[in-house]
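FW: tagging you since you asked about this chain on Friday. Here's the raw sequence from the shared folder, copied in full. Didn't touch anything.
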Amino acid sequence: MIHWGVNALNHGHGVAVFKDNKFVDNYVGQHDQISSSNIDLVLEHGIPDRIFWYENPWIKKTRQIYAGQYNRSFDFSVLPKNYMKPYTSAPMTYTSHHASHAAAGYYTSPFSNCAIVVLDAIGEFECATIWQAKHGKLRKVWSRRYPHSLGLFYSAFTKLIGHIPIKDEYLLQNMAESGDYTRYYNLVLTYMNGLIQSQKNLHRGISDWPHEIKNLQDKCDIAAAVQRVFENQIESVMIKAKQLTESDSLVYMGGCAMNSKTNKDIVEPMWKYIWSLPNPGDESSGIGSVLYHTKNRIHDYQWSVVKHITVKI
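HL: got it, structure written out here
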């Protein structure tokens, strides 16, 4: 029995291959379209009996209509069955976006009982979730839905200071090191307050910034304020996760988990044990889309392909 877990049409792509419920490999690429060369490599393992897609496209299209993204919502060529038709006609199972993230982290982790935090820009509707994992089963215990998104908040300010959103967030983090967060902190806080409560929909960026951005120092000061608000939000989410799960072990997934400064300064001191993946974003979602349904643990994970980044045991 051959299963493919597929992530595509988003940030990068990946095809995870499982044979008889054993993980074989995860073929990833930087572009959102699956490459023919990757498919050729994947097909060397045989024709799939089933494909697991990393999100539910119909719920996603509903959210796109809600967000006014009409061109995307009515583009049916990107429906998974249509998109994969040139490669295979295998039956398909959809997995919710955040469930794919959570499963990718949990079922590759050494934990039986733990908290799982997933934070990214946006899934179908969900942008932040907390899960409780016990004895091989996942249960979602908290969530925030679009447009309340910490990832969109960070990406919108990445765009404001002149970088490419959903790509250059690391540049904002780096620039924050040279900035004075106090200069714009109160203003930035008006865009994100409460526990991941967006005061404005930031999906299309920030159009009402009241100050002229004249030089690099202005950008660095904005970045520093954004990073500080981001860190405060992460701390609040982690406190919530500990309260809801009563666990000292964390699996941390989603694009927000790639903010290394926050991980070091905020996340790591709060938990006794931490597990994540080298790219906790969408590149590992294909793996999670399969594991969420099969609930198999990967104890012999091929770390030459995807290596763990943090294990405090």
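FW: The chain has a mean pLDDT of 92.
HL: agreed, and The domain at 1-108+280-306 is CATH 3.30.420 (Nucleotidyltransferase; domain 5).
FW: great, closing this out.
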